[in-house]
Amino acid sequence: MEKDIKLSEIFLTFFKINAVTFGGGYTIVPVIRDEFMKKRGLIDEEEMLSLVALAQSGPGAMAISTSLLTGYRLRGWKGALTALLASVLPCLIIISIIFYFYEAFSTNFWVKSALMGMGGVISAVLIITVFDMGKAVLKKHNYFSLLLMTAAFVASYFFKVHTIIIIVVLALTGLFTFSVLSEGKVK
Amino acid sequence: MVLLELFWVFVQIGAFAFGGGYAVLPLIQRFVVEERGWLSIKEMTDLVSISQMTPGPIAINSATFVGTKVAGIPGAIVATLGNVTPQFILMMTLAYFIFRDKKIGFLDKMLKGLKPGIVGLIAIAAISMFKNSLFEGGIISVANLSVVALATFITGFALRLITRFDLIVLIILGAVMGIIGNLLLVGFP
């Protein structure tokens, strides 16, 4: 069931995609669809949907999971490894270069002033994102979601419970609740 | 042995960063800022700003940035590979089963518990970044307030809320305002 595509072509395509796709997340899905579904016809719509769904349910950056699963679908584990390495390489190159500039110039007046202004903007954006995400999760099972959201906040902010413990408890709560009760019963 | 520690820290961050994008921030704050002091909250905020203006996911950018800071280019490679290892293993395992038409319901149920909780955790990262961007040393008082950062915060908040302004344009605007503001307040360097 391996598709007719060279590993080098998988590498170059994913390198290119990840070098020009800003922001990660969903932004990469239409680009991958274009390259492998529309242009090359190697993956069909249904396969694409199932691998995006799978990428969303795992940990880590979704763009990376989508890339490596596409690679897997094309050429098995070799394809997956190729796609994975090609996807992280642009970040590795760009961010390590930026880091050295940052280290050298972050106390420079101009850079410091720009970063100060950017810090204000990014905090505002993050606060709005939290509200948007909150609204989105509260649409379904609003009592259950509100309880977990508040509990996680309180446990971490006031009681300094370790983030990993909180995440494990959240996952187990979801697993237990939705295994015992049916979807419609959880308020 | 710092390379081994970098790898292990980012394996843990990669394994527990559920919920996409900003979900990595509470983990970076805990492991990298609070427990190891590899970054300050200020640097974490700068990292998020930089991440929005460069290609690639925040998780990968963070791993590369922290890795470079702690141990140079080898550190960057080790941290980045550590970060993607858990998702690679998990995705390969699940793909093996799913592409054989077996449903994986347990992950979906776990996510229903994870998603709302993660929002609560990201809120804490947002509060820390807000405090440290607007107040010198993150201590809330009138004397520590940065007028320039307050101005860009309000501008960013209003523009993003009302018009859903493009993120990159907004960050560049913040940078320009930061420079002009400091020129006016501090004068030409």
Tell me the fraction of residues in β-strands of chain A, as a range. under 5%
Give the termini distance of chain B in whole angstroms. 42 Å
Give the chain pair forming the largest contact, with residue counts.
A-B, 95 and 108 residues
Helix-strand string of chain A: HHHHHHH
Radius of gyration of chain B: 19 Å
Structural class of chain B: mainly alpha
The count of domains of chain B is 2
What number of structural domains do the residues of chain A give? 2
Q: Round the Cα radius of gyration of chain A to an integer and report it.
A: 21 Å
Largest sheet of chain B: none
Shape of chain A: flat
Structural class of chain A: mainly alpha
Number of DSSP strands of chain A?
0
Characteristics of this structure?
heterodimer, A: 187 residues, mainly alpha, 2 domains, B: 189 residues
Note down, in words, how this protein is organized.
The complex is a heterodimer of chains A (187) and B (189). Chain A has 187 residues and is mostly helical. The termini of chain A are far apart. Helix content of chain A is 79%, strand content 0%. Chain A has 2 domains: 7-105, no CATH class; 109-185, no CATH class. Chain A has helices at 7-20, 28-39, 45-57, 62-105, 109-138, 142-157, 163-180. The mean pLDDT of chain A is 89. In chain A, α1 (7-20) packs antiparallel against α2 (28-39) and α6 runs antiparallel to α7 (163-180). Chain B has 189 residues and is an all-alpha fold. Chain B has 2 domains: 2-137, no CATH class; 146-189. Chain B is built from 7 helices and no strands. Chain B has helices at 2-16, 24-35, 41-53, 58-98, 105-134, 147-163, 167-186. In chain B, α1 (2-16) packs antiparallel against α2, α1 crosses α4 and α6 (147-163) runs antiparallel to α7 (167-186). The radius of gyration of chain B is 19 Å and the shape is globular. The model of chain B has no long low-confidence stretch (mean pLDDT 90). At the A-B interface, α1, α3, α4, α5 and α6 of A face α1, α2, α3, α4 and α5 of B.
